[in-house]
Amino acid sequence: MLFARRLSIWPTLPLNVHFRNDSGWLPFPLNDGGCRIFSRARHAIWHACRTLGLGSRDVVLVPAYHHGCEIEALIQAGVKIRYYELNELLEPDVKSLEQQLTSDVSVLYLIHYLGFPQDAKRWRQWCNENDLLLFEDAAQAFLSEIDGQPVGTFGHAGVFCLYKTYGIPDGGAVVTIVPPGRPTSELQWGGWRVFKRHVNWVAERSALIGSVHLFIKPFTKLLRRKKNHNPYKEFEMGDPFSPPLALTTKLLPKLVDETTAARRRENYQFLLDEHRLLVPRPFQTLPQGASPFAFPIESNDADAVLKKLRRYGIEGLLFWRNAHPSLPAEKFPFSMAFRNRVFAVPVHQELTTSELLQISEAVHKSIIGNHTIPIANDSYSSNPKNNRPLHSTR
What we know:
single chain; 7-stranded mixed sheet; two-stranded parallel ribbon; 11 helices; 34% helix; 14% strand
């Protein structure tokens, strides 16, 4: 491992945040009187289902490409799950949706992947035509807009993961057509979790601290795995009535900034200009209203590339590797290909120009000599044409 600053897709928490004044700017949904904030977005999903009166007689159409915690939250809320496939642009596949439509289907669950807005206007109209509720999952799309209208305002419910955009330790927001109740569990302070995010900020600025962090983290991960062998632990619901940590509530108003989405777009565009051929098709064009969560890269051997990236200080993430256990994976080869082949590197607003250059150079050095077969939704797993390289990733 080289002597390098440690850069992660998660936004860090600057040391001086405690001395800042509140920004005075509240983006949607924080400026909505009906917005409720819980500790996690999965808690917000659970409450949205309860508030909308959904239960055991209701079926929710959910995408096969998902994290898993949202699926568990829906199941814990008492609804039934039915999966649909996506097309090559990671949009709901209309044919797949229509095959799943029955009289007990009540909700279309729409995910805005990596902060790139889906065509929510179209899907709201589709839901209206089919007498369904539209549930917008904007966990990765806080601050994203469609023609100036915030993502999450097109559906009957919208959920946001605040700590994916700012360096706070938790925070899941929800808005629904009928506001949910407020969290009622005991308030926790969150000092240790804030401290860890400060350490991450220092590790981004100091090669010494970054190298120590990169050296230690694999051992801490190994210890956690030994304590719990459950691969689905990350999906666990926890207490749905948990409020955000006290320090989250205190620090968030100091962190929100009108320039955040634009800075994320600038960082994304910088990497896109350098590495466009590595990017999956749905993310090769940056929409004006997007607030990118991370920069996606497609590789035949994602695990090997991630290991190489760590040598240069880049903590990439092969997110959503494990689908929820209720997914019949063999029926959804396209979504499974994304899980196995697409990982992400940072674009968050705390990155400096030199850090972006570090990321870009690390990507170049880590992927030279590898080849990528673009993911295509045409019997991907069985078509022999998909087994040959179509372009070099140089």
